[in-house]
Amino acid sequence: MLDTSPSAIPAHLSMGAICFRDRPFPDIVDAASSSGFTGIGLTVGQCVSALERGIGLDEIGQRVTDAGLRVAELELVRLGDQGPVQHANSLVEDLSGTLNPDRVHVAAFAGEHSRILAEFAAVCERLNPTPIAFEFMPYSQITTLRQAMDLAKSTGAVNAKVLLDVVHFFRSGGIPVEITGDHLEYVAAIQLSDVTERHGVPLSREARHLRTYPGRGTLDIIGFLRAVAAATTTLPPVSVEPISDALERLPLPVVAEEIMFSTVGTLAEAGWVARDSTFTFVSSVG
User: Fold this and answer.
1) Is the Cβ–Cβ distance between 274 and 42 less than 8 Å?
2) Are 128 and 161 in contact (CB under 8 A)?
3) Which pLDDT value is given to residue 284?
4) Which of 24, 107, 165, 168 is 20 to 30 A from residue 227's alpha carbon, by CA?
């Protein structure tokens, strides 16, 4: 039975896991809490790093809770891969049982479609009822929102969902007006960041190293957010993930504050207003 207590309400605004690659776990929690986020994302690597610092698995979850946060997203299960990556996948699943995240993220960079589907369905079954959100990327095996949604549908699992990352959406040819209510039924969360046009930069490098805060680049994020609001009466949670080699050189509290200010301003311009730890769309805004 799903836990519907107030403490189990998904985080409406979280710092994505890769906002803080290689940052100490206690610093991640402090920065997210101090800046007013309701959740954080964690990777299996960050959890292992915490363990190496003497912070036990139970303590990881307790520290997050004590800071007034939730583990919004836990990543990443890599579907379709063989070899050592499967050990990391198993650890993510084990951590899910301990940390009780709002969702677990999966993606596929290898493997045939049939294998990806079978493994996606299997993860959904093992971790039910936790939402399992598939992240499509233009440089992965599943490249578009439609493909990811069709994959989730094909599992037959009620907890099979999709992660809607704004950078991947636009870079895979997505257009905001194409977003429908059918899509949003499968979206567990949206991820915000921004990029700008750069000549000759591969999409994978752009996405993993050259992002910035929402509203600082050239993507039509306002149009994207308004299209999402027009397609659903229940706005999804938001995770912010400006993955950037340059931003990683800045103090984490500075990055957390910049993420908060830029994100809230961008959301407000699009008509998204936070009320009681959920987002409400106000069409007169902007």
Assistant:
1) no
2) no
3) 66
4) 107
Distance CA 215, CA 248 (A): 19
User: How many whole angstroms from its chain centre is CA 172?
Assistant: 17
**Residue environment code for 144-156, b if the CB has 16+ CB neighbours within 10 A, otherwise e:** bbbbbbebbeebe
Q: What tokens appear for 81 in the block?
A: 């891969």
13 sits in which H/E element: strand 13-15
pLDDT in the model for residue 7: 52
Residue 107, token pair as written in the block: 């993606």
This prediction's pTM: 0.94
Mean pLDDT of 50-78: 95
Q: What SS3 state is found at 153?
A: helix
Contact 15, 46 (CB under 8 A): no
Cα distances from 5 to residues 8, 177, 202, 228, 268, in angstroms, run 5, 36, 44, 27, 28
Give the residue from 1, 62, 2 showing the smallest Cα distance to 26: 62
Distance CA 131, CA 162 (A): 9
- How large is the average pLDDT for residues 52-74? 95
Biggest CA–CA distance in the chain, Å, is: 53
Let me know: does 57 contact 44? Beta carbons within 8 Å: no
* 50 close to 25: Cβ distance less than 8 angstroms: yes
Angle (CA) 58-163-34 rounded to 5° is 50
Interior angle at CA 206, CA 73 and CA 245, nearest 5: 75
* Res. 56: pLDDT tops 50: yes
| The two structure tokens encoding residue 78 | 């890599």
Q: Which residues contact 26 (CB under 8 A, 6 or more apart)?
A: 55, 63
CA dihedral sign of residues 52, 29, 120, 94 = positive
